[in-house]
Design a protein that fits this description.
Layout (H helix, E strand, L loop, with lengths): L12 E6 L8 E5 L2 E7 L5 E5 L13 E3 L2 E3 L6 E2 L5 E3 L16 E4 L2 E5 L23 E4 L3 E3 L3 H8 L5 H4 L15 E5 L2 E11 L3 H4 L8 E10 L3 E10 L14 E13 L2 E10 L6 H31 L11 H17 L1
Antiparallel strand pairs: 1-10, 2-3, 3-4, 5-6, 6-7, 7-8, 9-10, 11-18, 12-18, 13-14, 14-15, 15-16, 16-17, 17-18
């Protein structure tokens, strides 16, 4: 599948960095093809500015902080946390000397950045996670991962339950995932591909955590929200107790995986992720095991996706689509319309 949406949706929140990774030091990032410098002021407030002095475009991240101000490392132009030039060593501050300031918000341990019209930056538009912070849910997170491909190829992966059979046979997938049809639904905020796998052997990643023995009914839920946020839900219940409309079994295993894609540029994506689980909320050893196992599985995805980008760049023949591409096709089509509407 080629790229179905050109450019990026800018009036949206993207995960910029883990909140605890941004300190008083200057951090330079590329997001949606724009260079941005992030830091915290003396009172801990996060700041994001265009990482380019308006004089000769030297990155401000190559300068230094003086209190809550940034000083360019080339000619000393000084900018406040709103991006306004407040000092120039050999003259008064040029009135047109300013850099863009980006709205930020902190939620779910992440620092979110708004890349579009600042007046539209409503934190209420950040994805909602109802069970966040609930004492009965365990939590684990992994390090940010960079994937060397366009973010829409990662979207394809995260809205396709079928790939686990071939990419993750030793963790998330097995032969039972191969041929069961997928139900695809669309909503105003995204697209979901889901299915029940009935009376199947539990996949290796999950089997060791189940509170029941034997075969299981498994629910796969792959949901992609605009602009590029995925919610992957895994549910395992004893065989014969699952299916649409069935009440959740008392021994059900539930894991919700949250995956936030931030385009770096046309050939790189930063991938933030964490999981919430419905058992052992205070068990640090299980959290560490989840993180290690999920990281290993995502590394399998990264190998595939990096190679997909190379293939897309170098193969002279057109791509084809399969039935399991329906969810991705719907997502890309709707996203393209949203991008076009921004002009």
């Amino acid at each position: 599948m080629g790229l179905g949406a050109e450019g990026y949706l800018r009036n949206a929140w993207y995960a910029a960095e883990w909140a605890d990774a941004i300190t008083g030091a200057l951090t330079s990032l590329e997001i949606l093809g724009e260079r941005i410098v992030l830091f915290r002021t003396d009172d801990g407030s996060p700041v994001a500015l265009e990482d380019a002095c308006p004089h000769r475009k030297l990155p401000l991240s190559m300068g230094r902080r003086e209190g809550d101000r940034l000083v360019c490392g080339y000619h000393g132009l000084t900018f406040d946390s709103a991006g306004t030039c407040v000092a120039a060593p050999t003259q008064s501050a040029p009135p047109k000397a300013c850099v863009r300031s980006y709205p930020l918000a902190e939620r779910y341990g992440l620092l979110w950045i708004w890349m579009g019209d600042p007046a539209a930056a409503d934190p209420a538009r950040i994805i909602e996670i109802p069970q966040w912070g609930a004492p009965e849910w365990g939590y684990n997170r992994g390090p940010v991962m960079q994937v060397d491909c366009h973010y829409l190829y990662v979207v394809d992966n995260l809205v396709d339950p079928t790939h686990v059979t071939w990419v993750h046979p030793g963790s998330f997938g097995d032969a039972s995932c191969a041929a069961v049809p997928i139900e695809t639904t669309s909503a105003s905020d995204g697209v979901t591909a889901a299915r029940w796998l009935m009376d199947a052997r539990p996949a290796p990643f999950y089997a060791k955590f189940l509170q029941f023995a034997g075969a299981a009914d498994r629910y796969q839920h792959y949901e992609m929200r605009y602009p590029a946020n995925a919610i992957i839900k895994a549910v395992f219940v004893p065989a014969g107790t699952g299916g649409h409309g069935a009440p959740l079994h008392s021994h059900a295993f539930c894991m919700d995986s949250f995956n936030f894609l931030t385009p770096v540029n046309a050939r790189a994506t930063r991938y933030f992720w964490f999981q919430l689980r419905n058992f052992a909320p205070q068990d640090a050893a299980i959290s560490e095991e989840f993180t290690a196992d999920v990281r290993d599985a995502f590394e399998e995805d990264r190998v595939i996706l990096n190679a997909v980008q190379i293939g897309m760049d170098t193969s002279p023949t057109p791509t084809i689509d399969l039935k399991n591409d329906l969810a991705s096709h719907r997502f890309r089509t709707a996203l393209a319309r949203m991008i076009a509407a921004e002009g």
